[in-house]
Design goal:
By secondary structure, this protein is α+β, with helices and mostly antiparallel strands. It has three domains: 242 residues, YVTN repeat-like/Quinoprotein amine dehydrogenase (Methylamine Dehydrogenase, Chain H, 7 Propeller); 86 residues; 265 residues, Alpha/Beta hydrolase fold, catalytic domain (Rossmann fold, 3-Layer(aba) Sandwich), CATH 3.40.50.1820. Helices cover 14% and strands 34% of the residues. The strands form nine sheets. It has an eight-stranded mixed β-sheet, with helices on both faces. The chain has a four-stranded antiparallel β-sheet with strand order 2-3-4-5, with no helix packed on it. Strand 27 and strand 28 form a beta hairpin. Helix 4 packs across helix 5. The protein is globular.
Length: 646
């Protein structure tokens, strides 16, 4: 029988330290396959956030491929993706520091294929018939808005050739099975790709250019993602024209849904190269799909329109995607008890093996709080979703009658989603005695098109409502302390956090990670990809200038009366540092406790291990000082302006 120690919530000692999380964790990114060899990218906090390409082969096991100091990362759209390609052992990749395309042949050093000219590349595709790579290019050489095109780059060196231009954005160039045709996606301002885009095909001419482009889908304002050619040469793609992201085929100039389901076979195109389905040699489709925020894997027979579910025990396969060879499926995955991992599944034997885990923390499942899916009433007579994590530590219990503080997490995007996967950051909080609610507010993906588009024109309103109503639901259920409610979020989630703290009186303290305080500043000072994003979330600017002012927390600091800690990367090109600086200055002048933590060398998201550790510990310290619980951790204190000492 366990001998529990009785200590207040928040004061429990936990084995899950910030040091442990940083030292034993990597970020798993894009997956690729070359015959039976598996490749993937790892973001390594212990190497200052360098992204390394890693290979798993039968002959050599797991090994690093890209040598230091190369870092495999594209910055097209600032979020990148699709940064490497492997063809018969030869690796092509985008290097972070100069954004040039490199070729690395087995046993040799990387060699640049493109000039150092202020140009970025992403979404690499091999054109075997012409010995060249086709990809998306983003040209920053001229003043003004960058120019996006689809280009071809000879693998043996030579001039880069533009294949397609004239649209604001491009993605997913895919060469047909017989090499005669190219499919691709395009869209224009003010749309984001999940608002509406277009699927095209064109034939290659004898001069290797494109001729006769034809629009396949998108006229109805649908959102399309992941065009792929089957082994027999049939074009497939994912469309939300039915209200759900389902897989469609195009043959004989007709499109049809392969298997209609109230499920999501796609995700918002924030990054290039995400693949959620792939083909076996017999034409069957191994696919992943989401229902109610939980992901599944199945084998879809497009000829019979039937699907067999593969029981894996995993609940998320969306971030790193899925790759298929003749008999092996590789996918990124995670579950309530296992962190995100790279998994291989043998389609013949049905057995799977974990190749790489994002976290090497070796603790029993008794240390991990399990997510509970909840649905709660919110405004406009609707429901919202989330995952609740109760405090859990096998060595501690709280005094009788005490209820835990609650941290409400507001994810970024806002058109993104959270999933019930073991996250050591969440366990950092729950193992110390804080409850967590991870909210999939209206506007999140994974619950159908109408739920995703519910946020249109209402950002800063209904997302805030859902965070507030989710917290109050747990208070009314008697699960958390209504006087110790915390909200935190990153990027768009940081905006929801600041809005909740400013325009509502539910939360007692908050943390904004590179969050948005001034919507007007974001509309006039951000990168191309998101420069018109607020047209759908708020309204066109400057026509709706009054709404931008009305929903910007920075303009209503007089309403803000609770403490806030703000973390900001100084190299952030998505949300410039001036946003956090202005918010911190306004709070300081008003006399509200505030801490501003600028991070040199960090952009939109933190990658360096030292900084990740400092952010976690600083946030815990800040909450303890505001809510008044003692810490079991030995943490370096941070300066907090306007804090009244005890």
């Amino acid at each position: 029988m366990t001998n529990y120690k009785t200590q207040p919530y928040g004061s429990w000692y936990s084995e899950i330290s910030a040091d442990l999380i940083v030292a034993e964790s990597v970020g798993i990114g894009q997956i690729g396959m070359d015959a039976e060899d598996l490749y993937w990218t790892e973001v390594r906090p212990a190497e200052s956030g360098r992204t390394v390409l890693v290979r798993n082969s039968a002959e050599r096991g797991v090994e690093d491929i890209t040598p230091s100091p190369y870092s495999v990362r594209s910055r097209v759209h600032e979020y990148g993706g699709g940064a490497f390609l492997v063809v018969q052992g030869t690796v092509y990749f985008i290097n972070d520091v100069d954004q040039r395309l490199y070729c690395q042949m087995p046993g040799r050093e990387p060699v640049a294929l493109t000039p150092d000219a202020g140009v970025r590349y992403a979404d690499l595709e091999m054109d075997y018939s012409r010995d060249r790579i086709i990809c998306v290019r983003e040209d920053h050489t001229d003043p003004g808005e960058p120019v996006n095109t689809i280009v071809a780059i000879p693998t043996r060196g030579g001039d880069v050739e533009i294949l397609e231009q004239g649209k604001d954005f491009y993605a997913a160039p895919r060469v047909s099975t017989d090499g005669t045709t190219l499919a691709w996606l395009s869209w224009n301002h003010p749309n984001m790709p999940w608002d509406g885009n277009f699927l095209w095909v064109a034939s290659f001419s004898e001069h290797h250019k494109l001729s006769g482009p034809k629009l396949i889908a998108g006229e109805a304002g649908e959102a399309i993602c992941q065009p792929e050619w089957s082994p027999s040469g049939v074009l497939h793609f994912v469309s939300d024209q039915s209200g759900w992201w389902n897989i469609y085929s195009w043959r004989q100039n007709q499109t049809e849904v392969v298997l209609p389901m109230e499920a999501e076979f796609g995700v918002p195109l924030w990054q290039f190269g995400v693949s959620l389905y792939g083909f076996c040699s017999d034409g069957k489709i191994v696919c992943s799909y989401s229902q109610s925020g939980v992901w599944h894997i199945g084998i879809l027979d497009p000829e019979k329109s039937v699907m067999d579910l593969i029981e894996t025990g995993y609940t998320d396969v969306s971030r790193s995607g899925i790759k298929v060879s003749d008999r092996v499926v590789a996918f990124g995955s995670g579950s309530a008890t296992e962190s995100r991992s790279i998994v291989k599944l043998d389609l013949v034997t049905g057995q799977y093996s974990v190749i790489r885990r994002s976290s090497a923390v070796k603790l029993g499942s008794e240390f991990f709080s399990k997510p509970q899916a909840i649905q709660f009433k919110t405004t406009e007579g609707q429901f919202a979703h989330g995952f609740f994590y109760a405090p859990l530590n096998p060595d501690f219990m709280a005094p009788l009658g005490e209820k835990p503080p609650l941290i409400v997490l507001s994810h970024g995007g806002p058109t993104a989603a959270t999933s019930p996967v073991l996250d050591m950051d969440i366990q950092y909080w729950t193992s110390r005695g804080l409850a967590v609610l991870d909210v999939n507010y209206r506007g999140s993906s994974g619950y159908g098109t109408s739920y995703r588009r519910a946020l249109e024109g209402k950002w800063g309103v209904i997302d805030v409502d859902d965070c507030v109503y989710g917290a109050l639901y747990l208070v009314n259920e008697g699960l958390v302390d209504g006087d110790r409610l915390i909200i935190r979020g990153s990027s768009a989630g940081g905006y929801t956090t600041l809005s909740a703290l400013t325009f509502r009186d539910t939360f007692k303290v908050g943390a904004s990670h590179y969050g948005i305080g001034d919507l007007e500043a974001l509309a006039t000072d951000t990168h191309k990809f998101e420069s018109r994003y607020l047209d759908s979330l708020i309204g066109p600017y400057p026509e709706c200038k009054n709404l931008y002012e009305k929903r910007s927390p920075i303009n209503y600091v007089e309403r803000l009366s609770v403490p806030v800690i703000l973390f900001q990367g100084l190299d952030d090109m998505v949300v410039p540092p001036v946003q956090a600086e202005r918010m911190a200055g306004a709070l300081k002048n008003k006399g509200i406790p505030v801490a501003y933590v600028p991070l040199e060398g960090e952009g939109h998201g933190f990658r360096d291990g030292h900084n990740i550790k400092m952010v976690l510990e600083s946030e815990l310290f800040f909450f303890s000082q505001i809510l008044g619980f003692d810490l079991s951790d030995d943490i370096d204190p941070i300066p907090i302006d306007n804090l009244l000492t005890k």
